[in-house]
Every structure is written in structure tokens, then in C-alpha cells.
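Internal ticket - ligand job 292, S-adenosylmethionine:
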Amino acid sequence: MKIVPDGVYVDCTFGGGGHSKAILEKLNQNGKLIVFDQDDDAKQNVPNDPRIIFVPHNFRHLQRFLKLHNIKSVDGVLADLGVSSHQFDEADRGFSIRYDAELDMRMDQRQTLTAFTVVNTYSESQLHKIFEQYGEVTNAKTLAKTIVEVRNNSSLKSIDAFKNALRGVVKGNPNRYFAQVFQALRIEVNDELGALKEMLQQIPSILKPGGRAAIITFHSLEDRLVKNFFRHETFDETEGDPFTMTEKINQLKVITKKPIEPSEKEMKQNKRARSSKLRVAEKLVALAKDKR
Ligand SMILES: C[S@@+](CC[C@H](N)C(=O)[O-])C[C@H]1O[C@@H](n2cnc3c(N)ncnc32)[C@H](O)[C@@H]1O
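stdout (C-alpha cells):
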């Protein structure tokens, strides 16, 4: 991230505060760090440090909260997407297939939509789409149909009830299968892709020239969004079409042509880093337009 000691940085996903701690170590007394986390549990990890401001909200409101704190632009933005180890390991949160708990999966416990609502009220076609697109579940159609049949007889309230009712449709390794199913539900409950898109779209305007954005993703859906946005600064595919394109000047330069992935050693130390990919972009100092 090329931390400038008196710079202003944002950690969009504070969690246990590991990355924030590393940033704070590089900042001097004039540096500032704004940290976001929509999970109230993260608050307890915030260090007592006058340089840090905790924002207990979704990072999709990045610019709005920066403005609220009188910050117009920043030297760097970091996001380490998805669920924290704390959220996975806390049985009651309902993120893990290892424990029995209510089907919850909310990162932000103020929101009303839970995995229970998704499983028990979404239509068969909505469920099919979620499992196919967000979980890449091979038999998403059969899974959706079975859920709708089963829930007519009893509500699928707990993780065990859900897993037991669906034993018959599992394809391949049950742990892997349910991990994909849970990933799909979690992405839907937390609108993870929607929030990521909104956050990415704010990056070009909040970064100072020379400032960097570093995003760590954990699955291909997220990685594709980051990769494409860093390259084209849009999610609108027609904008790249030479027939419809008006000249568009990108503000970001891709620093990582290929994503940075963990080494064998890191994966051994931290299994959860396994599927991570880090991509970095930098805001151009002089835009092509200015150079002409
Ligand atoms: C993978 S963990 C981050 C761990 C952190 N980097 C650390 O060093 O401990 C992701 C954290 O980001 C939060 N989070 C995920 N999506 C978010 C969003 N859209 N807005 C705010 N916080 C979010 C989660 O609640 C979780 O605590």
C-alpha cells in the first residue's frame, strides 16, 4: 500500500484488527485510520488510539462516512472481504456448517434479512439462481426444488434441520457441498457483491493521486468484480464496446497484473488464506487528459 506516515487510510473490513494494526505501525502521530465493520462484535477489537476512527456501518457507505468525518480524500483503501474467523467460529452466528444454530448468517445484526428468511420464503427460482450463481452448486435446481418441498411440511429453522432435510440431494463430499450452499446463502443475506460493487465505484473519487486500493477476495465472483473494475472502472460491459464508447479516461492503474496469492508456507500457517487473492490499483498522478 506504500503507506505514507502522515497519510489517511481506510480499512473497510476491520474484523479482528490485524491489518489495521499493521497500518497503524507505519503511521506517525499525524496519520489517520478510518475503519469500517458492520458487525458490532468488531468494536471490541478497536485499540485505544487517537489516530483511529471506527465506523460501525457497511463499507458501501464509504464516501458518506468519510464526508461526515470531514475527509475528502485518502491515501489508501484496504478491504479483506468476507466473513472473519470470529464470525465463522462463533456457533450462534450461523455461518459454519460445523455447528448447529439458527440459520442466521447476518454480518450486520441490525438487518432483518437472515438465512432463515431466504431458505423459508424465497421462491424456487430465486433459490435456484442463488445456489447456481453464488455457490456454483452443480445441482442447484434440484436443491431449490427440494427445499421448497421440504419447507411445506416443516420450517427449516436450524442448520442441522437444514442439512438433515437435504442429505438426499448432496453431491460429492457433503462438507464441500454444504460449504458451497452456505457460501451462496451468506452472499445473498449480506448482499456481499452489491456492497463490493458500490464500494469499488467510490474508490477512484476518494483516492488521492498516487494513493492505492488493495482488495483481498476469497472466491471467483468477488475477484472478477475487482479485476474488471480495476481495469475498466465500470461494471457496464457495453462501456467497453468500441461502437458505443465515448472516450473514457481511467483514473486507476493496475499494480498487480496477476493477483498476489499466499505462499505454501502461509497456507500451512493459515488454512483460511488458501483461496485468497490480493489485487492492487493506484490512482494515477496525472491523467492522460492532463498530459496532452
Ligand atoms: C475477513 S474479515 C477481516 C479481518 C481483518 N482484516 C483482520 O485483520 O482481522 C472481514 C470483516 O469485514 C466485515 N465486513 C464484511 N463485509 C462488510 C461490509 N460490506 N461492510 C462492513 N464490514 C464488512 C465483516 O463483518 C468482518 O468482520
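Auto-summary: Residues 174-189 form the longest helix (16 residues). The mean pLDDT is 94.
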